[in-house]
Write a structure and sequence with these properties.
The protein is mainly beta and 129 residues long. Strand 5 and strand 6 form a beta hairpin. The N and C termini lie far apart (40 Å).
């Protein structure tokens, strides 16, 4: 079982930056791909960014390329899996959504929400114009 807890959301103005964090815990050693998705009211959940277990490979939605950066910090102790970050720069009103962290044991990057097994509760990001 993997538990994911997001933080870092808030209300900002267009052009501002935010950094989201996702703290992941687990009980067994394994390789997990991590990702961020977002869902705006009345819309489907959409892929934002994903990162491989080592952090060496990433993939982004076209709408956030060049503005968002995903990274991870794999902890060395046996209790916590890692922390995944989403640095969001030059935020736009259309970035307003609830942002969710997701995890999946995988050696390949995944961009579809159905592929992921574990989800956090989400953190709200609101960008005013």
């Amino acid at each position: 079982q993997v538990e994911l807890v997001e933080s870092g959301g808030g209300l900002v103005q267009a052009g501002d930056s935010l950094r989201l964090s996702c703290a992941a815990s687990r009980r067994t050693v394994s390789n997990y791909v991590m990702a961020w998705f977002r869902q705006a009211p009345g819309k489907e959940r959409e892929f934002v960014a994903t990162i491989s277990w080592t952090g060496g490979n990433t993939n982004y939605a076209d709408s956030v390329k060049g503005r968002f950066t995903i990274s991870r910090d794999n902890a060395k102790n046996t209790v916590y899996l890692n922390t995944v970050y989403l640095q969001m720069n030059d935020l736009k009103p259309e970035d307003t959504a609830r942002y969710y962290c997701a995890a999946k044991q995988s050696i390949v990057l995944l961009t579809t929400s159905d592929d992921y097994d574990y989800w956090g509760q989400g953190t709200q990001v609101t960008v005013s114009s």
